[in-house]
């Protein structure tokens, strides 16, 4: 079994939190806020960074407004080492670094090789690593996912790309029965270190079948982990961590986030697969979100801050298992929870999260947990209808006002 | 894809006229294996012979065996090989019979699928493999595991659900795995194992071509006639031929998928013909004759090791018992059962060994006795083994148990002492 993770003490890490090579969560046994070794989009101890974690000095709403939104605002402010890139480039960088590091890492999927990936995540890799390491498969999700699992059982570390997460429905047999279960049914003899990744979520009028959110379908499968990336920083970090993990990991990306730009460190780093990310510390209400909804929440946060609220925004990142420590600490502080997700209302990630919070932190809640999810409808093609199926910032603002009454 | 033959072929001609060679091959390939070599003599028949008897493009192995027998006039196996084959088949049969007994005595539960009658296929193929070659099977996997080298003790304990089982009691009858002997399962849903086998073969190729290791490992995937109507089968035939993977697809056609006759569920019941449609040889062999199966297996395994790609082998075989121990087996015709019982592979091999003076009755009897004792001992061992404790419940769910996540107290759940007791909340 893996060793217990130890980390640096919280106190020392605060002001000098830079780009350490992070392999483990920084955890202490001191109660209260511990340091999360995550996001540091900017360089150093600039406490006003929206993605800085646990900086206790952040209090002034004036500073927060400017940084309450997506990273785009941060670009000019950053100095020091680091390079700027788009999210899909960050994924590619992470993948390429891992392929350089370990020759057993390979990629398989439709159009990943010569075409460079339908979202360009594997661009250039086939030229560099060859056609067998970056394998263009025929259109047979079930079979090539199973092939990846068989290859993982016999020593390789495949990264299986679903061109769209919706296509993984065709691979559900292999993911559920083999990916999740074989380690257990073989009594621990075989490990399945695969990464299954691909874009999902509602895009720009892609139609019902290409706009699916399958996180909820996979959550019950025992034996797999699910993570959702939302920024170039955590995209690269999670990609690398997922590849290095011995467990099968499903990495959910979002079609609309591939062109997000951010400055990320030059040094090597990975993000912890099981931890959530503190996006914006606050006092009044905890908003839990992931993937694209993070940006809707941050946009709503701008409005909320102007109205005098102080929301704490957490990107849960790890969809299975939930990081109940970060979430719990937040609930204990604010006593109000709003979950904002793009998943379907029925049986979605939000539904599970609501249950988990109620079960574990019921005594700390001053109001019922509110969950804003997408409507239980197939995503319509028409732009106006599509807009109404997902949660919009205005709805988030209304919900917060309602909860904070 | 247009080929030189398309001009002569009618669009909806009868099957005899369809050239069953892979369409990309305009000239017959050099005969590195007798499968491909024998197709050269196949004439393309004209429409007039539409109703002529079907000729296989790849000769049934009787022909292969005859060809081999003619020049040398020697036997197909040596004495040692014969005894190994005999012992393996006796082990398979005795073990399965003992399973039935134990099931009805309440020592094992659930779905148990027995392999009686099909031993020739398992023995014929697996006894040619090395330890590092992989075998993938279905739920009818006890004998595949035994042939590959997993001890009878480990398999019996697994069936009893004990800790000493090959999968620690967590898999059961349908999930026999062994890392040591490269048995990659044991799958409950049909067709599920074929992509996994394809992946194992992919790893062999990857090791050779990317990691530059000396790797000649082949993978043998066993599955039934019912699976051959499943999409995963076709998808994997395509990929295996496309990437020229070192894999052998072995169809154990026992004519029945529980109560569904193969002829009632398949538009073209000749499964071996589906191989050439994907660009690999398709071979049909009498699966009740271990020597014939072995000869075909030698060719197929040789092909795979040389890097020439996959082969589809259809073995005509029969299961003497029902689909599982819960199946009353009332649907199958008694005459059919009797016909195949007369072709019992063990009796056939025994006859061959005795007639060709490779072994005498006494030697064979002593093998049978030895196996009986082995199986008895396996049952005793399984009986005496402990049941899994509560602590085992949460182990092995994740290879890295951090996957259970971080609990409300800030520690990983796997660090919770209750985790090892199996009572932690996860």
UniProtKB/TrEMBL annotation, chain A:
<dbReference type="GO" id="GO:0046872">
    <property type="term" value="F:metal ion binding"/>
</dbReference>
<dbReference type="InterPro" id="IPR033248">
    <property type="entry name" value="Transketolase_C"/>
</dbReference>
<feature type="domain" description="Transketolase-like pyrimidine-binding">
    <location>
        <begin position="85"/>
        <end position="260"/>
    </location>
</feature>
<dbReference type="GO" id="GO:0009507">
    <property type="term" value="C:chloroplast"/>
</dbReference>
<keyword id="KW-0560">Oxidoreductase</keyword>
<dbReference type="Pfam" id="PF02779">
    <property type="entry name" value="Transket_pyr"/>
</dbReference>
<keyword id="KW-0479">Metal-binding</keyword>
<dbReference type="GO" id="GO:0004739">
    <property type="term" value="F:pyruvate dehydrogenase (acetyl-transferring) activity"/>
</dbReference>
<keyword id="KW-0150">Chloroplast</keyword>
<dbReference type="InterPro" id="IPR005475">
    <property type="entry name" value="Transketolase-like_Pyr-bd"/>
</dbReference>
<keyword id="KW-0786">Thiamine pyrophosphate</keyword>
<dbReference type="InterPro" id="IPR009014">
    <property type="entry name" value="Transketo_C/PFOR_II"/>
</dbReference>
<comment type="subunit">
    <text>Tetramer of 2 alpha and 2 beta subunits.</text>
</comment>
<dbReference type="InterPro" id="IPR029061">
    <property type="entry name" value="THDP-binding"/>
</dbReference>
<keyword id="KW-0630">Potassium</keyword>
<protein>
    <recommendedName>
        <fullName>pyruvate dehydrogenase (acetyl-transferring)</fullName>
        <ecNumber>1.2.4.1</ecNumber>
    </recommendedName>
</protein>
<keyword id="KW-0934">Plastid</keyword>
<comment type="function">
    <text>The pyruvate dehydrogenase complex catalyzes the overall conversion of pyruvate to acetyl-CoA and CO(2). It contains multiple copies of three enzymatic components: pyruvate dehydrogenase (E1), dihydrolipoamide acetyltransferase (E2) and lipoamide dehydrogenase (E3).</text>
</comment>
<keyword id="KW-0670">Pyruvate</keyword>
<keyword id="KW-0809">Transit peptide</keyword>
<dbReference type="Pfam" id="PF02780">
    <property type="entry name" value="Transketolase_C"/>
</dbReference>
Automatic annotation (TrEMBL), chain B:
<dbReference type="InterPro" id="IPR029061">
    <property type="entry name" value="THDP-binding"/>
</dbReference>
<protein>
    <recommendedName>
        <fullName>Pyruvate dehydrogenase E1 component subunit alpha</fullName>
        <ecNumber>1.2.4.1</ecNumber>
    </recommendedName>
</protein>
<feature type="coiled-coil region">
    <location>
        <begin position="357"/>
        <end position="384"/>
    </location>
</feature>
<keyword id="KW-0560">Oxidoreductase</keyword>
<dbReference type="InterPro" id="IPR050642">
    <property type="entry name" value="PDH_E1_Alpha_Subunit"/>
</dbReference>
<dbReference type="GO" id="GO:0004739">
    <property type="term" value="F:pyruvate dehydrogenase (acetyl-transferring) activity"/>
</dbReference>
<feature type="domain" description="Dehydrogenase E1 component">
    <location>
        <begin position="88"/>
        <end position="388"/>
    </location>
</feature>
<comment type="function">
    <text>The pyruvate dehydrogenase complex catalyzes the overall conversion of pyruvate to acetyl-CoA and CO(2). It contains multiple copies of three enzymatic components: pyruvate dehydrogenase (E1), dihydrolipoamide acetyltransferase (E2) and lipoamide dehydrogenase (E3).</text>
</comment>
<keyword id="KW-0786">Thiamine pyrophosphate</keyword>
<dbReference type="InterPro" id="IPR001017">
    <property type="entry name" value="DH_E1"/>
</dbReference>
<keyword id="KW-0175">Coiled coil</keyword>
<comment type="subunit">
    <text>Tetramer of 2 alpha and 2 beta subunits.</text>
</comment>
<dbReference type="Pfam" id="PF00676">
    <property type="entry name" value="E1_dh"/>
</dbReference>
<dbReference type="InterPro" id="IPR017597">
    <property type="entry name" value="Pyrv_DH_E1_asu_subgrp-y"/>
</dbReference>
<keyword id="KW-0670">Pyruvate</keyword>
<dbReference type="GO" id="GO:0006086">
    <property type="term" value="P:pyruvate decarboxylation to acetyl-CoA"/>
</dbReference>
């Amino acid at each position: 079994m893996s060793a217990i993770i130890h980390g640096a003490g919280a106190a020392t890490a605060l002001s000098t939190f830079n780009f350490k090579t992070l392999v483990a969560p920084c955890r202490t046994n001191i109660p209260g806020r511990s340091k999360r070794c995550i996001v540091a989009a900017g360089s150093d101890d600039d406490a006003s960074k929206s993605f800085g974690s646990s900086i206790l000095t952040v209090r002034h709403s004036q500073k927060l407004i400017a940084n309450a939104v997506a990273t785009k605002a941060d670009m000019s402010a950053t100095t020091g080492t680091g390079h700027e890139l788009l999210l899909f480039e960050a994924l590619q960088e992470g993948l390429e670094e891992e392929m350089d590091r370990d020759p057993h890492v390979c990629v398989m999927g439709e159009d990943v090789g010569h075409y460079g990936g339908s979202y360009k995540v594997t661009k250039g890799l086939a030229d560099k690593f060859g056609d067998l390491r970056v394998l263009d498969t025929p259109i047979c999700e079930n079979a090539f996912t199973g092939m990846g699992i068989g290859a993982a059982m016999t020593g390789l570390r495949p990264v299986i790309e679903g061109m769209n997460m919706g296509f993984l429905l065709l691979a559900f047999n292999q993911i559920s029965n083999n990916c999740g279960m074989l380690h257990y049914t073989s009594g621990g003899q075989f490990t399945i270190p695969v990464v299954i990744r691909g874009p999902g979520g509602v895009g720009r009028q892609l139609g019902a079948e290409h706009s699916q959110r399958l996180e909820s379908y996979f959550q019950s499968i025992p034996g797999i982990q699910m993570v959702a990336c939302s920024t170039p920083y955590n995209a690269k970090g999670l990609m690398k961590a997922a590849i290095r993990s011995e467990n099968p990991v499903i990495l959910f990306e979002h079609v609309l986030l591939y062109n997000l730009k951010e400055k990320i460190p030059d040094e090597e780093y990975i993000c912890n697969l099981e931890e959530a990310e503190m996006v914006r510390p606050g006092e009044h209400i905890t908003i839990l979100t992931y993937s694209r909804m993070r940006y809707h929440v941050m946009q709503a946060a701008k409005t909320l801050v102007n109205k005098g609220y102080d929301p704490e925004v957490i990107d849960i990142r790890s969809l299975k298992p939930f990081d109940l420590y970060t979430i719990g600490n937040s609930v204990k502080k604010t006593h109000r929870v709003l979950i904002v997700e793009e998943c379907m209302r029925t049986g979605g990630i939000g539904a599970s999260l609501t249950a988990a919070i109620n079960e574990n932190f019921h005594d700390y809640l001053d109001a019922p947990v509110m969950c804003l999810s997408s409507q239980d409808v197939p995503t319509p093609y028409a732009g106006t209808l599509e807009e109404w199926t997902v949660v919009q910032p205005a709805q988030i603002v209304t919900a917060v006002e309602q909860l904070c009454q | 894809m247009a080929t030189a033959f398309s001009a002569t072929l009618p669009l909806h001609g009868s099957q005899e006229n369809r050239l069953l060679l892979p369409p990309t091959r305009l000239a017959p390939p050099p005969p590195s294996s007798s499968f491909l070599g024998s197709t050269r003599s196949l004439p393309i028949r004209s429409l007039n012979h539409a109703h002529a008897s079907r000729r296989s493009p790849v000769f049934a192995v009787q022909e292969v065996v005859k060809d081999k027998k003619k020049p040398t006039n020697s036997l197909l196996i040596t004495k040692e090989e014969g005894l190994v084959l005999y012992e393996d088949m006796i082990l398979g049969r005795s073990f399965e019979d003992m399973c039935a007994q134990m099931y009805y005595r309440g020592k094992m539960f659930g779905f148990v699928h027995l392999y009686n009658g099909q031993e020739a296929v398992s023995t014929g193929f697996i006894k040619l493999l090395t330890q590092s070659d992989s075998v993938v099977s279905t739920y009818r996997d006890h004998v595949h595991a035994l042939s590959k080298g997993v001890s009878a003790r480990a398999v019996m304990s697994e069936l009893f659900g004990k800790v000493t089982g090959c999968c620690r009691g967590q898999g059961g009858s349908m999930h026999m795995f062994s890392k040591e002997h490269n048995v990659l399962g044991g799958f409950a849903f049909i067709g599920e194992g074929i992509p996994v086998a394809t992946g194992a073969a992919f790893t062999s190729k990857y090791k050779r071509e990317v990691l530059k290791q000396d790797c000649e490992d082949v993978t043998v995937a066993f599955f039934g006639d019912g699976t051959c109507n499943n999409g995963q089968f076709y998808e994997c035939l395509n990929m295996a031929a496309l990437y020229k993977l070192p894999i052998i697809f072995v169809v154990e056609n026992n004519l029945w998928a529980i109560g569904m006759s193969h002829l009632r569920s398949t538009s073209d019941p000749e499964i071996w013909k589906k191989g050439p449609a994907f660009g690999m040889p398709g071979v049909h062999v009498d699966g009740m004759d271990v020597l014939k199966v072995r000869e075909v297996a030698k060719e197929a395994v040789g092909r795979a090791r040389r890097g020439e790609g996959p082969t589809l082998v259809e073995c005509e075989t029969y299961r003497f018992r029902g689909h599982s121990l819960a199946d009353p087996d009332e649907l199958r015709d008694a005459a059919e059962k009797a016909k195949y019982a007369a072709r019992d592979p063990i009796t056939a091999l025994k006859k061959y060994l005795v007639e060709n003076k490779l072994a005498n009755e006494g030697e064979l009897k002593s093998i049978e006795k030895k196996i009986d004792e082995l199986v008895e001992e396996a049952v005793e061992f399984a009986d005496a083994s402990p049941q899994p404790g509560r602590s085992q419940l949460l182990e092995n769910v994740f290879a890295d148990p951090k996957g259970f996540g971080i609990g409300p107290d800030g520690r990983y759940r796997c660090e919770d002492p209750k985790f090892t007791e199996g009572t932690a909340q996860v």
